[in-house]
Specification:
238 residues, Ribosomal Protein L22, Chain A, 3-stranded antiparallel sheet, 11 strands, 31% helix
């Protein structure tokens, strides 16, 4: 498969549709990945990890024209996955999974980040102090309860995608990343715009943080540190 400069290919897969391939996916993993899979105490987490890494390896093999089991994947000191060896720097990727879906984003041009969350029921008020800035919370409190829950996940996925893109993960305070509702020039409803970010992320204006229409039951976003990325959302069939 081909991916051009400036493109971001985003693949979505339903884990349940590939349940019979779990053993095959596991055979593609490195010894270190198998150890990580074995450490999960619940089958759901183990299955999501194996399926996600298996699909990631299959996709990378098609873009790199290489054996999926031979692709070397390492990670930075802070845990961001990356290609190692001769493939390093040829393509950047980000992976997320939640409930029954896996999301993989790839680009030859930028370090990117993607996040996916199932719209599960949780106690929003307990979670808000962990990742929502006061100005964001003020906007949320004006929303109906159902919309408030969705707004929380919209903020969460956008911030997690950014944190993954810069490779800082949990080292980055999500409260320091601020999105606010703004009215676009075309007047077609408000959207969330990145208005403030930690210095390590550079100028907030350089980031494109785009929501992904995956399913009514999920919220997802991709973060790209470049102008006018061409996003291609695709279904992974096998």
């Amino acid at each position: 498969m081909e991916i051009r400069s400036g493109e971001v290919h985003i693949w979505v897969a339903a884990i349940s549709e590939h349940a019979t391939r779990l053993d095959g996916f596991e055979q593609l993993l490195s010894d270190e990945e198998r150890e990580r899979a074995a450490a999960f105490t619940r089958d759901g987490g183990r299955i999501r990890f194996i399926t996600g890494r298996g699909i990631l390896r299959l996709l990378l093999s098609r873009y790199l024209d290489d054996d999926p089991a031979e692709i070397a994947i390492s990670q930075t000191r802070l845990g961001k996955p990356m290609l190692a060896g001769e493939s390093g720097g040829r393509i950047f990727f980000s992976l997320s999974h939640s409930e029954d879906l896996v999301l993989v984003a790839l680009s030859p041009s930028w370090e990117i980040g993607v996040d996916l969350e199932f719209l599960r029921t949780l106690q929003i008020d307990r979670m808000i102090p962990l990742c929502v800035a006061p100005v964001e919370r003020e906007e949320m409190e004006k929303l109906p309860k159902r919309t408030k829950r969705r707004r929380f996940f919209e903020l969460w996925t956008r911030k997690e995608a950014l944190a993954k893109a810069v490779g800082l993960g949990l080292k980055l305070s999500l409260r320091d990343i601020i999105f606010q509702a703004v009215e676009p020039k075309d007047g077609l409803g408000s959207k969330l715009a990145l208005t403030s970010a930690p210095a390590v992320m550079g100028d907030p204006q350089r980031w494109q943080v785009v929501p992904l229409e995956i399913s009514d039951e999920y919220v997802a976003a991709v973060a790209v540190p470049g102008a006018d990325p061409v996003l291609c959302l695709r279904r992974f069939e096998g």
